[in-house]
Design a protein that fits this description.
By secondary structure, the chain is an alpha+beta fold. The chain has a single domain, classed as Phosphatase 2c, domain 1 (4-Layer Sandwich), CATH 3.60.40.10. 25% of the residues lie in helices and 26% in strands. The chain contains six helices and eight strands. Strands 1-2-5-8 form a four-stranded antiparallel sheet, with no helix packed on it. The radius of gyration is 17 Å and the shape is globular.
Length: 183
């Protein structure tokens, strides 16, 4: 992640873009997801009917929510909902959040732009991830639903299923996240 930020940190573009993703890595021989983000694109985990937002938006609205200045309902319609506080390509070095997440068989990860989350509620996202369809079909259904709801922003969707994990005990269910870095 640090190599990525060094390569783009000194641009004079004046505008920026978000970056969010997952990468497979090994820690002491056990598989983990490296989850990272800059901006307001997100990573979600879906397992056993539970949808969890793993990343934190870097936005004015998120800061207002965190401070208790607005409610989640107010955040949905806030006039500054598209203003991000961190991006790749601003005139300063980008600062990502990143952490390790144990890989659990049967889980499904969603990496998406805010074009999806501004058009679908968490209930809607959960519905399409729960359908039992292939990752490709789930991604297409999510994209179609977002575009069908108005699609006012770009919509990017990647769905990844964890079908199995090695028999090592270090990655089993119940292992907590490791090495979180949030600014």
């Amino acid at each position: 992640v640090d190599d990525m930020t060094r390569g783009v940190g000194h641009t004079d573009l004046g505008t920026g873009t978000t970056v969010t993703g997952i990468a497979l890595t090994l820690v002491d021989g056990a598989p983990y997801w490296l989850v990272f983000n800059i901006g307001d694109s997100r990573v979600y985990s879906y397992r056993d009917g539970t949808l969890e937002q793993l990343t934190l938006d870097h936005s004015i609205v998120q800061e207002l929510l965190d401070a208790g200045a607005i409610t989640p309902a107010e955040a949905e319609v806030h006039p500054h909902s598209n203003v991000i506080t961190r991006a790749v390509g601003f005139n300063e070095d980008p600062v990502p959040d990143y952490f390790l997440l144990p890989i659990v068989a049967g889980s499904r990860l969603l990496v998406c732009s805010d074009g999806l989350t501004k058009e679908l509620t968490e209930h809607g996202i959960r519905y399409f991830l729960a359908e039992g369809s292939s990752p490709l079909d789930a991604a297409q259904q999510l994209m179609d639903a977002a575009l069908g709801n108005g699609g006012r922003d770009n919509v990017t969707v990647v769905v990844v299923d964890v079908l199995a994990t090695p028999e090592s005990g270090a990655h089993r269910e119940g292992v907590s996240r490791r090495a979180a870095r949030r600014h």
